[in-house]
Sequence to fold (216 residues):
Amino acid sequence: MQLVVFDLDRTITWHDTLLPYVAGFLGRRPLQRLRIAAALPALAVQLAGGIDRGALKATLLRHTLRGCTRTQIDDWNARWVPELVARGTRAQALTAIESHRRAGDHLVLMSASPDLYVPAIGARLGFAETVSTGVRWVEERLDGALTTANRRGEEKARCLLELKGRHPSLRVVGYGNAASDLPHLMLVDEPRLVNASRATVRAAARIGIAPYAQWR
Fold:
């Protein structure tokens, strides 16, 4: 058995997931579509002050989904997640996941995307556990503020060390695609850089990580 950690966006999926998730949710509710436009000034302020991806994420969620109920989010996940898996994921990524599952490996989906939907994707794909950015609820309604650090870059590396601490006897395989994945890929026994841009391949080469595959 190995500990196998997969990134989500652009590693398993073709594209990032947060904006399509939010836009799809609001698109089914005509009266709420204006929330997207209303969020733009706040997002522009965040961008003007320098890109803090965690703050951007919280700003987007609070201006678009704040006040939604758990039932509404669960209902949307029940529609959106199967569609994402069917049409928005890379076939070769799904094959790799299934191969590790059949081998008896302990599969972890670790993503900077929010826990609004990452656990649902993990469950759909057969992951044993998920690690993702936490989002605050007030009783049964979404607040949208973050309850954890944004699970990206060095924070993702910290989470990887926690996983290794809980599974000290297991060899670790890690899949990622972006420069922001390199800090945690440096900590695994077998880094597998997939779907990487040329710039990311160059950055990875400087720390001794070679590209693994371009998945379709």
User: Anything to note?
Assistant: Confidence is low (pLDDT under 50) at residues 45-49. The beta strands are 2-6, 106-114, 129-133, 135-138, 141-146, 171-176, 190-194, 211-213. Residues 82 and 124 are 8 Å apart (CA to CA).
